[in-house]
Specification:
The chain is α+β, with helices and mostly antiparallel strands. Helices cover 23% and strands 43% of the residues.
């Protein structure tokens, strides 16, 4: 009997509690709110790419003569200094013979020039003959200088780095016999790297040279870098189908390292709201504000955002709290409770 009485009393207490709760919160939704706030965020275009040599930062070395690679002293990726020997190149017998013939031709022309000058002094030669001798010397000197510029004029050529840089590629192997002008070594200047990123074609119109860029390495633990947009292509990359753009960086880059580029194209001004506070349906984007314990739907236009914050434009009431959590359960005019 006592057990039955205690059960009935407990049931009555439970029913009374439910009735009181229902009376206090009839069908309301518990939400979190915050005060509306106007502000500004940077307008960002995000792109991905990697550190590559700038168009004018590389140089491929060659010798304009036949020859053979006797020794290679560097490896791809190696840092080198101006004047450092990269490889040993020996001219072919034919190239050496051509240079020696040019030297002999100059000596002969100089001898003829001296003889003509002596004969002129003895009145045994004409001024025209002396002029021809002078021209022969000039032609022979020009031919020899051209050969020296092309192949150095020595049978053994030590190919040296013309500037501080990194060996990007070695185009030959030790022992190769090469034709004139064959590529030997490609160097990239130490400060000649840029970050080349791919931008969606629809975003190209927002880009302007000189815009600031934040570069975030995709390698964990690397610090972000600051850069400047210095080049934007006007054609699609045939492989990526994106627009290539170059970012110059004051700091040191590691060739081949991947980055996320955040290009600031301007500023977004409007209402700053949590990204999840903005909802969307067939009528467009909207959010909810709280007014007299009810949800008020407000149509907005999403201007952009950064991370967890969106910038919107719309007729928000600055005096009404903005619903930031629990909004998925609301409809226009629905009762709500604020935490």
């Amino acid at each position: 009997m006592n057990r039955t009485r205690r059960s009935a009393a407990g049931l009555a207490t439970l029913l009374l509690s439910c009735a009181v709760y229902a009376e206090d919160t009839p069908g309301s939704v518990l939400v979190k709110t915050q005060a509306p706030q106007r502000g500004m965020l940077p307008d960002i275009v995000t792109a991905y790419g990697m550190a590559t040599p700038a168009i004018n930062a590389g140089m491929t070395l060659s010798v304009q003569a036949e020859g053979r690679v006797m020794r290679i002293d560097v490896a791809p990726g190696q840092m080198v200094h101006a004047g450092q020997v990269l490889l040993d190149f020996h001219l072919s017998a034919a190239a050496t013979s051509t240079y020696e013939q040019a030297v002999s031709a100059l000596k002969l022309a100089q001898q003829q020039q001296a003889r003509s000058a002596r004969l002129l002094a003895q009145q045994l030669a004409t001024a025209d003959q002396v002029a021809q001798a002078d021209k022969a010397v000039s032609d022979a000197q020009a031919a020899l200088m051209a050969l020296e510029r092309e192949n150095g004029g020595k049978p053994q050529q030590l190919i040296a780095a013309p500037f501080d840089g990194v060996v990007s590629a070695i185009r030959v192997s030790q022992g190769d016999r090469l034709q004139p002008g064959a590529a030997l070594v490609t160097l990239t200047r130490t400060s000649g790297l840029v970050v080349t990123v791919g931008v969606e074609p629809s975003q190209r119109v927002r880009l302007r040279l000189g815009q600031p860029v934040r570069l975030e390495p995709l390698t964990e633990g690397e610090a972000p870098l600051r850069g400047t947009l210095i080049r934007v292509d006007h054609l699609l990359n045939p492989k990526s189908r994106l627009i290539d753009a170059d970012v110059a960086v004051a700091g040191e880059l590691l060739q081949g390292e991947a980055y996320r580029a955040r290009i600031q194209t301007g500023e977004l001004k409007g209402w700053l709201v949590p990204r999840d506070a903005v909802l969307g349906d067939d009528q467009g984007d909207f959010l909810f504000q709280a007014a007299d314990g009810k949800a008020v739907r407000v149509a907005v236009k999403r201007l952009g955002g950064d991370g967890d914050t969106s910038v919107v434009d719309g007729p928000l009431d600055p005096k009404r709290p903005l619903v930031t959590l629990g909004n998925y359960q609301l409809s226009d005019g629905a009762p709500l409770r604020q935490e």
